[in-house]
Amino acid sequence: MSATAAKASIALVAFSSLGDGLIYLMMAENLRLNGFAVTYFGNIGYQLRAWLPQFEICPYPAAEEMDAALADFDLVIMSPPQFLRDRMDPATTDAMRRKWLLICQKTPDDWRFDLTGTKRATLAPETFAALQGLLDCGGSIRDRDYTTESVVDITLEYMQKRMGLAQLTRTVALTPPAGLQLRRHPRRIVVSPDSAWPQKKDWPPRAFLKLCRELQAQGDAPKIVVAPANHERWQKMPGNTFETPVFHDIGELAAYLYESGAVIANDSGNGHLASFLGVPVVTIYRKKNPAFHWRPDWAPVRVVCPRLTLPGFRGEIWKPFVGVGDVLAARRALS
């Protein structure tokens, strides 16, 4: 660890989605390993704070309190959460980029701003020297064309090339709460049939229920896990004879996923969380691209794609072309 870097404090403000929240936990871990004093801001990370005692994790401040909460840090790196993006008109964006490094997987051109001059004038020389390599890394994390790289790979490349971090890891060191054991229940298969974009991303409920019956027939213990807002609908769904537990926050969900044997999910945050925790994942994806960028990629993964897609008035028709047998085969490949 660099003694100079250790004198530089960084606030890392994550975007508000589950997948992004985990990507920025990985970034926080890498900044920490390179000697910076890191504080992560984000509600996703805050619910997992017991697992990550190696750096400070805070919930989002209210929008009107953001400036005050971030004022004492030497550098702020921010992927603006949705409640800030909703108010980012051109004048607000310009003000934000002149005080904070604004980043995201893909950003508008006007997000980027080189903070080198500003920080040279306002920081102590040794602090400026520690941070200098980071001060022009705002804007898009994806700055070239990618093919098979996952978002984890892309973010690691950004940290190496644009941030100049010498020590890199894709695996975030976790401290599981006392008593938990990774994959303690190897036949417990978490089936996650919802997502934030159900019409676009969700394989049909009847297909998931058939999958659960097949898993049960081969000796597995499928459990259906959905967002709290969808729990009652799934618990009462005709044909659902499977346990459908409810979790009140991401920390509770993480503990359950951590001790499960595998997760089968739509392209959704639950798959990313399971992978982040070291649990194998089967992801059902709507396009014929098993190497799509936003696949989970911290633990072993299999992506199941439709055998074909057809054009439709409301987007491509893909759901009938993903078979239960395809998903079961992917599950077996992870065993």
Q: Could you provide a short overview of the structure?
A:
The protein has 335 residues and is of the alpha/beta class. The protein is built from 14 helices and eleven strands.
Give your account of this protein's structure.
This protein is an alpha/beta fold. It contains 14 helices and eleven strands. It has a six-stranded parallel beta sheet with strand order 3-2-1-4-5-6. Strands 8-7-9-10-11 form a five-stranded parallel beta sheet, with helices on both faces. The protein is globular and about 65 Å long. The mean pLDDT is about 95.
Structural class by secondary-structure content: alpha/beta
Note the gap between the termini: 38 Å
The coarse silhouette is: globular
Strand content: 5-15%
Low-confidence stretches: none
Key attributes of the depicted protein:
alpha/beta, globular
Q: What's the topology here?
A:
Layout (H helix, E strand, L loop, with lengths): L8 E5 L4 H16 L3 E5 L1 H5 L8 E3 L7 H5 L4 E4 L3 H4 L4 H8 L3 E4 L11 H7 L2 H7 L7 E2 L10 H11 L23 E8 L5 H4 L3 H13 L3 E4 L3 H8 L14 H9 L1 E7 L2 H8 L4 E4 L16 E4 L19 H11 L1
Parallel strand pairs: 1-2, 1-4, 2-3, 4-5, 5-6, 7-8, 7-9, 9-10, 10-11
Helix pairs in contact: 10-14
